[in-house]
Amino acid sequence: xxxxxxxxxxxxxxxxxxxxxxxxxxxxxxxxxxxxxxxxxxxxxxxxxxxxxxxxxxxxxxxxxxxxxxxxxxxxxxxxxxxxxxxxxxxxxxxxxxxxxxxxxxxxxxxxxxxxxxxxxxxxxxxxxxxxxxxxxxxxxxxxxxxxxxxxxxxxxxxxxxxxxxxxxxxxxxxxxxxxxxxxxxxxxxxxxxxxxxxxxxxxxxxxxxxxxxxxxxxxxxxxxxxxxxxxxxxxxxxxxxxxxxxxxxxxxxxxxxxxxxxxxxxxxxxx
Length: 272
Prior knowledge:
Blueprint: H1 3-47, H2 57-65, H3 70-94, H4 103-127, H5 134-146, H6 151-175, H7 189-223, H8 231-240, H9 245-269
Helix pairs in contact: 1-2, 1-3, 1-9, 2-3, 2-4, 3-4, 5-6, 6-7, 7-8, 7-9, 8-9
C-alpha cells in the first residue's frame, strides 16, 4: 500500500472512531441527564413524605421501571450507561478532548467510566429481576473494610476524597468552567444563558450533595458506624431529617433536576 493510501486509510479510521466516540458520548450523557432528573424526582417524593423510595440511582431506576414502557426505558438507560463508560474508558486510554493526555484528566475519566459501568450493571440487575440494594451494599462494603487493620483510616480517606470532589464541583459550578466543554457558538443567546444557569445551579447542587455524602463517610469512619456510609441515599435522607429538612431536600432535588437538564444540553452540544 502506498504512503498516500495509508494516510487516507488512517484518516478514514479516525473519522469512524470519532463518530463512534460521539455516539457513545451523547448516548451516555443523555442517560446521565435522565438519571439525575429521576433522582431529583425521587428526592421530592421523599421530601413530601412519600416513603419507600431510595433517593439514589437505584431508586431512580426503580421509579423508571414502574412507569409505562418502564422496561424499555431501563434498556435505553443501560445502553446509555455502557456508552458513557466506554467513552470515558477511551478518554482514559487516548486522552481527554480539550484537556490533553495528562495523567490527571485520564485518571478522572477512568474513575467516571468505572462508576457508570457499575450503574449499567445495577440497571441490568433490575431488568433481570435480581434483588439488589445499592445503599445496603455500600454499608456492607464499608463494614467489611473497617474490620481490617487500618480500615477505618482508609474509609476516612475515601470520605475526604469525596468531599474534595464535591467541593471541586462547587467551584466548577460557581466559575462556570463546564461551559468550556460546550460548542456555545451553535447556541442562540437565550439558549446559552439557560444552559449556563442550569449548569451553574446543577453543578453546585451536585457538588454540595457529594460533599455531604463524603462528610457522612468520614463520620462513619470516626464513629465506627457503617450505616452512615450509604452514599447519595443517606446524604439526601440526612438533609430530610434536619430542621427545615423538607425545604432543604426540595432545594437539593431542584438542583439535581437542573443538573439533569443541563446534562441533556451537554449531550447535544458537548465537544467530543
